[in-house]
Amino acid sequence: MTTELTSDDLQPVAGGGLLHRRLFLKSGLVLATAGAAGHAAAEPPAKLSEDLASPSWMHAPGAPFTPYGKPSKHEARVMRSIGANKDLPTNGVSWTPLEELEGIITPSGLHFERHHNGVPEIDPAQHRLVIHGLVKQPLMFTVNSLLRYPMQSHLIFIECGGNSNAGWHEEPIQRPLGGFHGLVSCSEWTGVPLAILFDQAGIDPKATWVIAEGADGAVMNVSLPLKKLMDDAIVALYQNGERIRPENGYPLRLVIPGFEGVTNVKWLRRLQLTTEPVMARNETAKYTELLPSGKARQFTFEIEAKSLITSPSAGQKMFGPNIYEIKGLAWTGRGKVAKVEVSADGGQSWAEAALQEPVLSRCFTRFRMPWNWDGKPTVLKSRATDETGYVQPEREMLVKERGRNGYFHYNAILSWGIDEDGAISHVYA
Ligand SMILES: Nc1nc2c(c(=O)[nH]1)N[C@H]1C(S)=C(S)[C@@H](COP(=O)(O)O)O[C@H]1N2
Ligand SMILES: [Mo]
User: Fold this and answer.
1) Please, what's the largest Cα pairwise distance for the chain?
2) Rounded to an integer, what distance in angstroms lies between the CA atom of residue 264 and that of residue 160?
3) For 361-420, what is each residue's pLDDT tens digit?
4) CA proximity to 157, closest of 191, 114, 186, 189
5) Per mean pLDDT, which range of 2-6, 69-73, 148-152, 305-309 is the poorest?
6) Distances (CA, A) of 338 to 112, 306, 364
7) CA distances from 426 to 24, 45, 183, 415, 416 (A)
8) Is 96 in the pocket of ligand 1 (CB under 6 A)?
9) What is the DSSP pairing of strand 354-355 with strand 306-311?
10) pLDDT attached to residue 40
C-alpha cells in the first residue's frame, strides 16, 4: 500500500523543516539519503525487457558452501579505522564505522578495540580465573568449568571513556563519524553472573571493592564496586552468539552493563575482593578529569547519556532539497533512553524523534526523524534524555563544567553543519 503524502503531513513540527515522526508510518514513503550511495528512488523501467533480462550470475551455479562466512567483497570499505601509538603500535584503538551500520548490533568483526599492549594469544586450556582476597574460600576456574554454569545474556553497548575526546579540541575535527565517536559498540554478551561465582567463594562482609586484572602484556587492572558486580556483571564467554573474539577478550572478559569501557577487563584472570581501590594507572592518571575547582573527577563508572546522528553525517553529501530520514544512535549507562530530540535549526527548536523498538536498558537505541530539507545551510543536532531525567549537555555547558583539562568522558551534543552545496561538516554551534 502506498499512501499519498498530504500537505498536512508536510507541516513542520519544528524549525528547519522537521516533520512529525509519525510520517514513517506511511508506507511507500521514499526518502533521500545523504552519502555516496542510494539516493536514487525507484523509477518506472525505461525498457521492461532489459530490466528483467537475467544477469550472468543466473546462468551458472553459485559458489559452494563455506565453513565460516565473511561479508560481501563489495562491502570491503566497511572497516575499523586504526589509531595506534607510533612508538608502541600495540597501544591504541580501532574505531567502529558507525556511519556505515544500521540497527543496533555491531558485528563482532567491527566492534571497536582498545588495547594497552596488544591482543594476547591465550590457550583456553591453560587459562585460569582466580577469585581471592576477602572470601571464605578462594576459587580457581578453568574455561571449561565456567562453561558449566547457568548463563545470562546482556544486549548492551560498551563505550571507552576516551571516546569522542577530539570534542575537547579548540577546533572541530573533520573525520567520518566513526573516526572520532566510534569507540562505542553494541553486542550481545553471554556468560556467568559474577554473583553466582562470588557466592560460591563466600564473600567476607568487609569486602566492598574488587580488583580485576587481565592476562595481557599490559597486565591491565582496575578497581570496581562489589555491589555493582553483584547486581548485573557477568564473566562473558560469548559475543553475538559465538565465543568472544580474541580482540575483545577471548576466552573470557568482564562485562559490566553501563560502566565505561576500561572496567570491562578483557582476558580476565583475577578478581580480588578488598576494602579499598588499588589506585591503578587507569583510574588515577587516566579516565579521570581535573576539574576547574582543582578536584579530580574519579571513578565515574556510569556512561552518561549521549546521542549522535549517523546520517546525514560529516563527509557525506546531501542530494538537494528533499525529504530525508535523519537517523542515529543514543545510549546511556543509567538505564533506558527516554527520548531523543532533533533540531534542524542549530538548537533553536527541537522535535521528538521516533525510537525504534526494542528500547533496552544500557543498549544502543536507534532513532529516526523525517526532515524536509529546503536546501538552505543549517545545523543538525540530536539530544538524548535518559530515564533518570539526565539531558545530554550542549558543548559549551560541558566545557564550562569540566574545564579545559578534560580529555575523557565527552558526551556533548554533536552538531553537523550543512552548507548550501549540501556538504556536511562537524561544527561547534
Ligand atoms: N586486559 C585488558 N582489558 C581491557 C583493556 C586492555 O587494554 N587490557 N582495555 C580496556 C579499555 S580502555 C576499553 S575501552 C575496553 C575495550 O574493549 P574492546 O576492545 O572489546 O572494545 O576494554 C578494556 N579492557
Ligand atoms: Mo577505554
Assistant:
1) 79
2) 10
3) 999 999 999 999 999 999 999 999 999 999 999 999 999 999 988 789 999 999 999 999
4) 186
5) 2-6
6) 26, 12, 12
7) 27, 39, 18, 6, 5
8) no
9) unpaired
10) 63
Class of the 306-427 domain?
A: mainly beta
Q: Residue 48 belongs to what H/E stretch?
A: helix 48-52
Q: How far is the CA of 216 from the centre of ligand 2 (A)?
A: 15
Ion ligand 2: protein residues whose beta carbon lies under 5 Å:
114, 160, 261-262
Measure the CA–CA gap between 361 and 122, rounded to whole angstroms.
32
- Residue closest by Cα to atom 16 of ligand 1: 114
**DSSP H or E stretch at residue 198:** helix 194-201
Q: What does the pLDDT look like over 172-204, one tens digit per residue?
A: 999 999 999 999 999 999 999 999 999 999 999
Atom of ligand 1 nearest to the CA of 115: 7
Q: Is 269 in contact with 127 (CB distance < 8 Å)? A: yes
Which CATH number does 128-287 carry? 3.90.420.10
Identify which of 47-61, 109-123, 396-410 has the greatest average pLDDT: 109-123
Q: In whole angstroms, what is the distance from residue 187 CA to residue 178 CA?
A: 17
| Confidence (pLDDT) at 412 | 98
Number of residues assigned to the chain:
429
| pLDDT score for 1 | 45
- What pLDDT score does 72 carry? 97
Nearest ligand to residue 216 Cα: 1
- The secondary element (H helix, E strand) that includes residue 229 is helix 226-232
Domain limits, CATH 3.90.420.10, in the chain: 128-287
The residues facing 259 across adjacent strands are 302
CA distance 144 to 130: 14
Nearest CA to ligand 1 atom 23: 262
Does the global pTM surpass 0.90?
yes
DSSP annotation of 356 reads: P
> What pLDDT shows up at residue 2?
52
178 sits in which H/E element: helix 178-181
Q: Where in the chain is the domain with CATH 2.60.40.650?
A: 306-427
**Nearest-10 Cα torsion for 185, 165, 416, 383:** 70
In tens, the pLDDT along 71-81 reads: 999 999 999 99
Q: State the first-to-last Cα distance of the chain, in angstroms, to the nearest integer.
A: 41
Most ligand 1 atoms within 8 A of CB, residue of 165, 185, 264 to mutate: 264
Give the pLDDT score at 124.
98
Q: Indicate the residue type of 303.
A: I
Name the nearest CA neighbour of 135 among 227, 254, 268, 272. 272
